[in-house]
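Q: For a teaching session next week I want to show students how multiple molecules come together into a single three-dimensional assembly. I've collected the sequence lines for a complex. Could you give me the predicted structure tokens for the whole thing so I can convert them for display?
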Amino acid sequence: MSRPHNSSSPGAFGATLRRDLLLSGRNPGDWVNPLVFFLIAITLIPLGVSPERELLALLAPGLLWVMALLATLLSLDGLFRSDFDDGALEQMLVSPQLLYFTVLAKVLAHWLVTGLPLTLLAPVLGVMLALPADGFVALCVSLLLGTATMSLVGAVGAALTVSLRRGGLLLSLIVMPLYVPVLIFGASAVSNAALGSAVGGQLAVLGVFSALALMLAPLAAAAALRICVDSY
Amino acid sequence: MPTGLWAAQANGGVILAELLLRLEQLSCERDERPLFSGLDLSLHGGDLVQVLGPNGSGKTTLLRALAGVSEPARGRLFWRDEPMSRARWAYRQALLYIGHSPGVKAALTPLENLDWYRALSGGSQRDEGRAALAQVGLEGYEDIPCFQLSAGQLRRVALARLYLSTAPLWILDEPFTAIDQSGVAALEERLQAQAAAGGAVILTSHQEVRLPGLRRLNLRDYPPVDPFIDEAGEGDHVPTS
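A: Of course. Below is the structure for the complete assembly, covering every listed component.
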């Protein structure tokens, strides 16, 4: 008798990715909300603080990063919630696919509809905040790495709180401390670049964060999902 | 199909069916409340088992434990005589589980839902989805978002997976819920075909299921025993079947 081997087919990864992107396309509210939040929050800063170019240029790196972080946080709650509610999550757990890759496909889909658009929107808002021209490349690269890390780490929080009806606040409390280092290195990369200094170090650290998150976060999220669904 | 061993084999005039799943002294609890204990069951190819019991007696909990969604409180599971911890991957490839919630995405069409399940279980051709949906009476609904379908039709989308599946073991939680009479008859026919092909089905239902050879397992016959007495060896009881 041929022994079934431990394998996870690339077809299943692609199918889950395609399914989640399709679902995002059909429920635009889920991913448009964080973008609109990002846009509105940044637009209001010059009105509420000061329209002075020097001051805005000084604040821009931190503001863009903090708002991008909060926008990501807004989008996390629904990551596994609908799959949990309609029973699809149980099906992922009992399927002959490694849960690591199923979770990774879902996180990738989440990043493609939140992190990536946030990264693309950030330079436009940077212009609005008079960010010096030298800072734009660092802004895009740091947000590209940073939002990926935040989606991955956020998945762990979303998985841990999936069985709670109102897990939003708890999710923020779990995830926020883990976002702090990303924020510090991300924002300092952009402000250093805006001042014309080297940013290789900060970007390298952000790269390390995202590589670590890529390896460990889906494992932790998968374990958390098993525990939450088991004890539900 | 990975193996032809599921098929019942005639051996010297005695029909020997392959042992698929074995439960040994299984006990389940929910929120620390014991539901049943000491459940022994052997599931061979060709077996149809209906789990009975009043609401809250642990039918869904049992099926979730069997499917590997949750861990039983005590007891052991064997898949083809291998402990479940070692046979987990083989087991998942041999299992079709339809839970209490059908797992159908409301924003997707029936065909998209089936396509995802097909990819997840790593099997069959793409155009088989339409044929399977036609089998469950959803012809013409393939490309309509599921939120426009009725509860019974949603259940039928999930049940269409039965027509795509080559898995030897089916675990079905309330498959007849919200299904009309002709649908129930078609489903019973499909379950019988599965048993005839050497597969096994374990299901729960509050309706009368009319299938030849159906075994009934009443969870009331396995009342929870106090775990402390059980460990001291004084809680032994003979289950009546």
